[in-house]
Amino acid sequence: LNQQVAVIANTTRQFFKRLDKMMLAESGMGRLCVSG
């Protein structure tokens, strides 16, 4: 059970990291569009 929780926590962390990168990329593109 403990191992399963650790795996889920790790997956969730990776998911949020990816989400954060996507949001950063989107905001960066938006900035480029505005400045360009």
Characteristic terms for this protein:
36 residues, mainly alpha
In short:
The protein has one helix at 2-35. It is an all-alpha fold and 36 residues long.
Describe this structure in words.
The chain is mainly alpha-helical and 36 residues long. The protein has one domain. It has 1 helix and no strands. The protein has one helix at 2-35. The relative contact order is 0.10.
Mean pLDDT comes to 85
Unreliable stretches: none
Rounded radius of gyration (Å): 16 Å
How far do the termini sit from each other?
Answer: 52 Å
- The helicity comes to over 70%
Tell me the number of strands. 0
Number of helices: 1
Name the shape in a single word.
rod-shaped
Helix/strand class: mainly alpha
Provide the number of structural domains.
1
What's the arrangement of secondary structure elements?
Blueprint lengths: L1 H34 L1
